[in-house]
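User: Structure please.
Assistant: Input sequence and predicted structure:
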Amino acid sequence: MGWVESIQKAINYMEEHLLDDLTIESISRQANASAFHFQRTFTILTDISVGEYVRRRRLTLAAQELSRTNCKIIDLAYKYGYDTPEAFSKAFRRQHGVSPSEARKYIGKLTFYERLVIQVILKGEIPMKYNIIERDSFQLIGIKREFSLVNGENLIGIPKLWDKVNSDGTDDQLGKLNNGQIKGLLGVCVDKRILEQNETMDYWIATEYDGQVPEGYSSLTIPASKWVIFEVHGPMPDAIQEVWKRIFSEWFPTSGYEHAGTPEMEVYTDDDASNPDYYSEIWIPVK
């Protein structure tokens, strides 16, 4: 099964089980991927988390049923996964801009989210610059935080961690400790499979370092890998987010490579990240 087909299979599974107790683990299993890598790929391609997609689709169907039937609002709330009518009404208003009772009276406009269909995008007008290297294992040092993958909590927590590192001087300290081949600060995503409904990932802000681990820092060994290194030119965070999207929507579907499942890295150089010419890199292990 190809890359695009596997992602579409997972989306179809979500659609077929929208009224069930869906978990990221059960969804990602349809794509033969870990929860972390599936959610990351899905979010990059769609700009929303898996949980947000499910919520939007459920509330879309709830609105349709509300306007077409006489089903009680309390029954709709339970049917579409809400513990109380109040929680359902709050989520309904946030998406549609009106309450369920107003929607039943045809007051206001409803927001409809169609089911997703993944397509390969073939583009040639803007080249992607990358090179492929092989490296033996190497050591990183830095700080690590564990984030939940549930409801996209990692997408909220990681930017806050970077804000803290940039404000408390940790970024400067790590920059001075760097003595490896990769120059700059690294953002490293490490997939962690624990238990279903308890999916987490580790995120590291680190630098390459060969030697005894300094006090106050932890170490991470990056395994020997074949790496595809993509160049990124432009200010953060827009430039790197755009390249991530092109990697998964254009490069992976046609490259013949698969993600190796080991940690991937973003490399940030020691320059002004708001500069239009700012240079950074995305390192992806492949097989």
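The mean pLDDT is 90.
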